C-alpha cells in the first residue's frame, strides 16, 4: 500500500520497481570492474542463464474465490520467526559498489526485519556490521579457513557480535574460472577486502610476517588460499559443532546425496545453491535440484534456496517446490550500488510487495498454502 500511495502523492520510487531492469541500470551506473564482479558467473555464464531459465519452466496456477484478501508472509526458519521467507544472501566486498557496503545492507535489513547473512569476505568488520544491524536478525557465513585457530577466532567474534546462525559455504574451496574478474585482474575484489578478516582478525594477523598495514598485498595473498578450506571433508563437521553454539547451515548443496549427508551429520539446514552460477559453469540450475532434495530431507532439516531469485513469483515457485525460505543475491547488491541503504530497502520492499500480491492473487493466504500443486511444469 505504501508503495502505491507514494505514487498517488506524485512521489516516484528512487529507481525502477522492475527487478529485471536492475542489472541494466547497474551496467549503466557502476564502474565496469565492480559491475563485472557482481553480474559475472563462471566460464561462459551458462549456469547463470540456466538458473533463470529453470524458473520459466514452472508456472503458477491461480485459484479463485479463496480467502486471500489479507496475507501472512510469516515463516519460521531454524526456529526463528521471520516476517517473510526472504534473507539477504552473503555477498563479499560490498564496498566496491558503495562506500557504506555491508553497513548499508545491515541497516536496510534491520529496518525491514529481514535476516542478513554476512560474508566472511565482508569489506567491514564483523563488529562494525553487527553495530549497524543493531537489533536486526543476522547470520554469519563462513568460508572455513584451513587454520583452526583462525576459524575459532572468527566463530567467537561472530557469536559475540550477535550472529545467531552459521552458514558454511562449501562450493568455493577455490575460485572458479571467472572471465569478468580475470579480465579486470581481480582488482575490484582485492580493493574491496579493505577492512575485512585479514586485517581485523587477531588470530590471522598473528600468522603474518608483516602487519597488513605494512604489506596489504601479502596479507591478502595469504588470506585467499587459507579461507578456501581445501582441507575440509564431511568428517570434520563436528569441529564446527564444537566451536559454534547455534544452528549450522551448509550452503552450496546441489546433489541429493550431499543433502542426505548434511542431514546425517546433524546439520540444521542447507542452502540448495550453485552460488548464483559463479562456480561451476555448466552446472545444473539450482531450482532443478530443489524438488528432489526437499522431498528427501525437508522433514529432517530446513531447506533454503538461492540462485536466480528475482521476483515475487520466483519466491512463490521456490517455496512451492519445497524451500522454507530463499536468499536474494545480486538484486539487492544492485540496489546498494544504485542507492546505498535506501536502494537496498527499495529492492527488498519491492520483492516483498510483489511476493505478497502474487501469493494472494494466486489464491494463497499463507506460505503453508503453497505446494507442488500450486505449479504446472510447462
Ligand atoms: C556471492 N555469493 C557469495 N556466497 C557466499 O557464501 N559468500 C560470499 O562471499 C559470496 N560473495 C558473492 C559475491 C557476489 C558479487 C555475488 C553475486 C554472489 C553467492 C550468494 O550468496 C548467492 O549464492 C548468489 O548470489 C545467489 O544467486 P543470485 O540471487 O545472485 O542469482
Automatic annotation (TrEMBL):
Where, by residue number, does glyoxylate bind? 37, 143, 178, 251, 275, 278
Superkingdom, taxonomy of origin:
Bacteria
Q: Does the keyword Flavoprotein apply?
A: yes
- Cite a single GO MF annotation: isomerase activity
Residues in coiled coil: none
**Active site as annotated:** 275
Cofactors named for this entry:
FMN
Instruction: Write down the CDD domains for this protein, in alphabetical order.
Output: LMO_FMN
Q: Name one Pfam family in it.
A: FMN_dh
Q: Which N-terminal stretch is annotated as signal sequence?
A: none
Q: Does the keyword Flavoprotein apply?
A: yes
Q: Which residues cross the membrane?
A: none
The UniProt keyword set, sorted, is: Flavoprotein, FMN, Isomerase, Oxidoreductase
Q: What residues bind FMN, as annotated? A: 90-92, 119, 141, 169, 273, 306-310, 329-330
Task: Pinpoint the FMN hydroxy acid dehydrogenase domain residues.
Answer: 11-378
What the entry lists under InterPro entries is as follows: Aldolase_TIM, Alpha-hydoxy_acid_DH_FMN, FMN-dep_DH, FMN_HAD, FMN_hydac_DH_AS, LMO_FMN
The family line of this record is:
Belongs to the FMN-dependent alpha-hydroxy acid dehydrogenase family.
This protein is called what?
Answer: Isopentenyl diphosphate isomerase/L-lactate dehydrogenase-like FMN-dependent dehydrogenase
Amino acid at each position: 500500500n505504501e508503495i502505491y500511495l507514494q505514487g498517488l502523492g506524485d512521489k516516484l520510487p528512487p529507481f525502477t520497481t522492475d527487478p529485471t531492469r536492475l542489472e541494466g541500470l547497474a551496467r549503466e551506473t557502476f564502474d565496469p570492474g565492480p559491475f563485472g564482479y557482481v553480474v559475472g558467473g563462471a566460464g561462459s555464464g551458462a549456469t547463470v542463464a540456466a538458473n533463470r531459465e529453470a524458473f520459466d519452466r514452472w508456472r503458477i496456477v491461480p485459484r479463485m474465490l479463496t480467502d486471500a484478501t489479507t496475507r501472512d508472509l510469516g515463516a519460521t526458519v531454524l526456529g526463528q520467526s521471520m516476517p517473510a521467507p526472504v534473507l539477504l544472501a552473503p555477498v563479499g566486498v560490498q564496498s566496491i559498489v558503495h562506500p557504506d557496503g555491508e553497513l548499508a545492507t545491515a541497516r536496510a535489513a534491520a529496518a525491514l526485519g529481514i535476516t542478513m547473512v554476512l560474508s566472511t569476505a565482508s569489506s567491514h568488520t564483523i563488529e562494525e556490521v553487527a553495530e549497524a544491524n543493531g537489533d536486526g536478525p543476522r547470520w554469519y557465513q563462513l568460508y572455513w579457513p584451513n587454520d583452526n585457530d583462525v576459524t575459532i577466532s572468527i566463530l567467537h567474534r561472530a557469536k559475540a557480535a550477535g550472529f545467531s546462525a552459521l552458514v558454511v559455504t562449501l562450493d568455493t574451496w577455490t575460485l572458479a574460472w571467472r572471465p569478468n574478474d580475470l579480465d579486470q585482474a581481480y582488482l575490484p575484489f582485492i580493493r574491496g577486502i579493505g577492512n575485512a578478516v585479514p586485517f581485523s582478525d587477531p588470530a590471522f594477523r598473528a600468522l603474518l610476517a608483516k602487519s597488513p598495514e605494512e604489506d596489504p598485498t601479502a596479507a591478502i595473498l595469504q588470506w585467499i588460499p587459507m579461507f578456501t578450506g581445501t582441507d575440509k571433508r564431511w568428517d570434520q563437521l563436528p569441529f564446527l559443532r564444537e566451536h559454534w553454539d547455534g544452528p549450522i547451515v551448509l550452503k552450496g548443496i546441489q546433489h541429493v546425496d550431499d543433502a542426505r549427508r548434511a542431514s546425517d551429520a546433524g546439520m540444521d539446514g542447507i542452502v540448495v545453491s550453485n552460488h548464483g552460477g559463479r562456480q561451476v559453469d555448466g552446472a545444473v540450475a539450482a531450482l532443478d535440484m530443489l524438488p528432489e532434495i526437499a522431498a528427501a530431507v525437508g522433514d529432517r532439516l530446513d531447506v533454503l534456496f538461492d540462485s536466480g531469485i528475482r521476483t515475487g513469483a520466483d519466491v512463490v515457485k521456490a517455496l512451492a517446490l519445497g524451500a522454507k525460505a530463499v536468499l536474494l543475491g545480486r538484486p539487492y547488491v544492485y540496489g546498494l550500488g544504485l542507492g546505498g541503504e535506501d536502494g537496498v530497502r527499495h529492492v527488498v520492499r519491492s520483492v516483498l510487495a510483489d511476493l505478497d500480491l502474487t501469493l494472494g492473487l494466486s489464491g494463497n493466504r499463507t506460505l503453508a498454502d503453497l505446494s507442488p500443486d500450486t505449479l504446472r511444469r510447462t
